[in-house]
Amino acid sequence: MLHLNRPAYNWKIALYIIPRPDFKGPAGGSSMKSYLEPILMTEKGLLPPGFVLEDPESHYIYVCEKIDETELPTYPLTANVL
Question: Which domain of life is it from (predicted)?
Fold first, then answer.
């Protein structure tokens, strides 16, 4: 997230965690949790406290959506940015 969550990019980032196709949850069943809903992250782009990852070898999908250009903050260009 450190590479994606930079103010200059001005992205709205959604995280989806998709388990492996052959993953079976506790007691051999698959979870009823919807994988079509994004995971709510903190302002720093971290998983919320107490979040339990069901499948440690899940696939992480980051969807970065550019925020409307009219809402962009202005950043002056300086030599150290280039």
Answer: Eukaryota
Residue 62: count of CB within 10 angstroms of its CB: 15
Q: Please tell me whether residue 69 adopts helix, strand or coil conformation.
A: helix
The pTM score is: 0.63
Mean pLDDT of 51-70: 84
The 10 Å Cβ neighbour count of residue 19 is 19
Question: What is the arithmetic mean of pLDDT over 12-20?
Answer: 87
Q: Decide: residue 51, CB within 10 A, 0-12 exposed, 13-18 middle, 19+ buried.
A: exposed
What does DSSP assign to residue 20?
-
Q: Which helix (H) or strand (E) holds 71?
A: none
3-state secondary structure of 7: coil
